[in-house]
Amino acid sequence: MIRGFSLGDVWLLILAARWTVLLSAVAFLGGGVVGLVVAVLRTAPVRPLRWAMSGYVQLFQGTPLLLQLFVVFFGANLLGFTVDPWSAAALGLTLYTSAFLGETWRGSIEAVPVTQWEAGRSLALSYGQQLRLIILPQACRIALPPTTGFLVQVVKSTSLTSVIGFVELTRTGQLVNNATYRPLLVFGVVGGIYFVLCWPLSLTSQFLERRLDLRRPRRRRRGHR
Predict the structure, then answer these.
(1) Residues of the chain with pLDDT under 70
(2) Residue 20 burial by Cβ neighbours in a 10 Å radius (0-12, 13-18, 19+)
């Protein structure tokens, strides 16, 4: 039986956004940990490690996220493992996020001038010490704006987890629409909630890009030559 769309439905959609935020946070944090390993190994002096991580990145960047979620959810069940939609969504998004963050951070590491590596070697620092003490602090400054911007993509990508049964914002919108049959209104509210979640992140990314722009010369303070 079709019923009307009410403020209760709006509140239900707002509550469902909690799961979108939580899933985004888990995927971003987990993907960040794995992505850091990928980035470091992508720049390691050991060639087989670079090849392996390059294949990992190409695999997850070259296939649709929707397909990856299907493989994780249905593939695990075919192998005899019981995986609930939440676990499959978190794992699938974590792997997806790690590939993109790993490649972004790899580029940031390689953007650090080679003279910084040479300075580390002149101080007799090991490869790990050069990374930890010299390279990564500078790479973090370069990587911060694109990393924040990619978080917007992670938030929006959580909507695909509805196809494996995870009830987040988009899936809740589908359920509300099935009960009210007001698709324009329901998904208009859903889109508005996504906008509220993503717009501040986009502004933050743009601000950081301007604030941390290393190519732009700093203005001299007045009174100093």
Answers:
(1) 1, 214-225
(2) buried
